[in-house]
Amino acid sequence: MIYHVCSTASRDGNGSKEMPFKHIQDAADVALPGDEILVAPGIYRESVHPRHAGTEDARIIYRSEEKLGAVITGSEVLTGWEKDGELWKVEVPNGIFGSYNPYTTMVCGDWYFAPTVRHTGSVYLNERMMYETVTKEECRAGEKDPSSWVPEESVYKWYTEQDGDRTVIWGNFQGKNPNEEQVELSVRRNCFMPEENGVDFITVSGFKIMNGATTWAPPAAYQDGLIGPHWSRGWIIEDCEVCNSRCCGISLGKYRDPENDMYFYTKHVKSPTQMERDAVCRGQYHGWLKEKVGSHIIRRCEIHHCEQTGIVGRMGGVFSLIEDNHIHHICNSSQLGGAETAGIKLHAAIDVIMRRNHIHNCIIGIWCDWQAQGTRISQNLLHDNQRPEGCVQGKGAMFSSDLFVEVSHGPTLIDNNILLSRTSLAMPSEGIACVHNLMCGGFSLINSGVDSVVNGQREPRYTPYHIRHRTEVAGFMTILHGDDRIYNNVFVQRQKVTHEDTKPTDHEHQRVGTAPFDIFPAFDEWYGHFQMDREPNMGELGTYHFGHLPAWVSGNAYFHGATVSKHEGQGYEDRESQVILELKEENGKAILTTNLPELLKNVKVGLVSSDTLGCAFEPEERFEQPDGTDILFDRDYFGNHRGLQAMPGPFETDELSGVTVFSI
Known about the structure:
With 664 residues, this protein is mainly beta. The chain is globular, with a radius of gyration of 25 Å.
């Protein structure tokens, strides 16, 4: 059955074409498997909670009749502003907020490092989030924020206080009259999320979803966003624009579990890392199985101007596909700060594929934290995921890099990507393979960023690994470091190193190249310690059971002084040629011009496959497809075919002059 919704209908109807519903929720209350909800262009000021699940063969589809024509917003128009000295003032009765008042609810929780001074609500001026201040005086001053990535936007300020049963808001609109501008106030926590678990097989297509008073979404808490499946299976979110979330845009997040929710923040008595391990194990009790949770698709969406993450997820995003999305300007105000901020931030990205995405101007591009097992990051364009020059790191803010893989045992596969930021990959992990990438930034957090020293002793961070291509936990182990494969990449020292004194163990290491892997043994050296020719001595082998794992480095090309590892085999180094790498954006297209194909036309390397890469050590899982079949890296960034011999890097082509590398 097809249900129709139109916000401009003359009155509530029955969902027919002749008498459409006025609200999407009315259709969500009655839609059953196989039904489609067609939503006419218009603004829908509501929070939609799908009640019924679809099935794998009969999805429930929510579709905007015109792409981005139907707007679901968590905000209301804010009128009636009055002059109050140099500021403008408005009062709102608290009854409008119901049980959730974003102007008494603070952004706070586990892994939140900034001061707890911001509310979950926001004021929007012409579809841009204004900056909240801690005092009315700060609001009145209207000065640029030195931590803002876009300082000219940071002069638009707002401040709030409670006055009995009313929320009072002051605004500094820099000379604009708010009664003549588009000013809105976020009043709803979400725009499109089920209230219950297990609302499976929903498609959301073509909507603009915006302006939510979302809460901080750490990995062991209930994670909300403007839109998300809430611990369900088989959602498709496609062709949507998702923007202006106080915290997260799309959530593929965790089950709701009051016993474990914000445990560290509320109870304090367990370390936050132990709490994370508890959450993984409790997930099994809450139905964390391949047959019940995950397998979502997020495709062709534009996700931007969210202040925590574009896409967040813990455990609920397993086996998902995230492709062809444009994710940009995430966590740019620096008003919020903590360990859950990135364009994409996933814990337990088991068998998740992220491909052909364009991610830029985010505090971190893609951050895979814990259990990046079977994760593949392929054919993505990442750039400018770094604080602008002169920008001061905000309180509690993370460092920046294109990619960050944290305390995972792998196998994590990073192939055929264009990585142009100052730091390409932070990797306090093991079991990572980098194949056929263009890397113009450094490796960082190698052999560091894992354990803590407390009370004068090392406190290891044990993290789980899983049964191959499943969610069931197979074991826990510390990070030994190493077990990395660096094959057929191109390394270019494209940007000037601004911090010469940094080391590969530091954040934001900018020196490009593979020399950081020299600390790891070669395979034969490592394997030779294990006494394969005689009965093993358990005590003696303990030294090697807890030592570094080996690294493999081969077939890479190095330009502009990029460093070369002692393990490099069949590498190519060019210290003389000038590499051209120019990226510009025109009419929704990212266009790259480079002379790398000309410089590499006579450099040939062998094809890499799953057999070349072997198994990640701890989970004993091959670098392979989610269905267990082999990967042959015979396609480049564009999908062009590689023959028996290939060029290093992501391009198998004769020319790249003004070629579109991403199109919205």
